[in-house]
């Protein structure tokens, strides 16, 4: 997991819930850096949360740059809760990013700290990535997808 900057590994892992129907959207949420041009708080995740959300509408471009986005909606209640970065723009690819392409708006989700097995301590990202094999497989798939888009 060398491409994930160490600064992200010290972040806490959040469990994200849909604020409309309260279902769990994702168990690997990270509080995101504020993106250029916005002051909105976001959460992000790395694994496509396809069990809980679906892509809706058509693609559009992020205001501050040329990242190609598509909104995502909660599968249970149908409300839009965030967006997926379908194709990151070149400056964003070059800048320090955590490789997370699934974003949730903080006003549409609520988060809880994910605890470790003992239930005593909040889980950090560095605790996750070394043990979650499924995670690495999914990221591999993801990179292939991008190559196709960027060609
Ligand atoms: Zn919902
Ligand atoms: Zn961008």
Automatic annotation (TrEMBL):
Superkingdom of the organism of origin: Eukaryota
A GO cellular-component term linked to this record: cytosol
Transmembrane segments: none
Similarity field: Belongs to the FAM72 family.
Protein name stated in the entry: Protein FAM72A
């Amino acid at each position: 997991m060398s491409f994930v900057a160490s600064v992200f590994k010290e972040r806490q892992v959040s469990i994200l819930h849909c604020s409309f129907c309260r279902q769990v959207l994702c168990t690997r949420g990270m509080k995101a850096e504020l993106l250029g041009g916005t002051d909105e708080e976001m959460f992000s995740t790395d694994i496509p949360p396809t069990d809980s959300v679906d892509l809706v509408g058509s693609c559009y471009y992020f205001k501050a740059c040329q990242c190609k986005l598509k909104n995502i909606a909660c599968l249970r209640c149908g409300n839009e809760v965030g967006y997926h970065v379908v194709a990151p723009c070149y400056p964003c690819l070059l800048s320090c990013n955590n490789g997370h392409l699934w974003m949730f708006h903080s006003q549409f989700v609520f988060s809880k700290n994910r605890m470790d097995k003992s239930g005593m301590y909040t889980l950090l990202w560095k605790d996750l990535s070394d043990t979650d094999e499924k995670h690495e497989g999914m990221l591999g798939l993801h990179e292939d997808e991008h190559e196709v888009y960027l060609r």
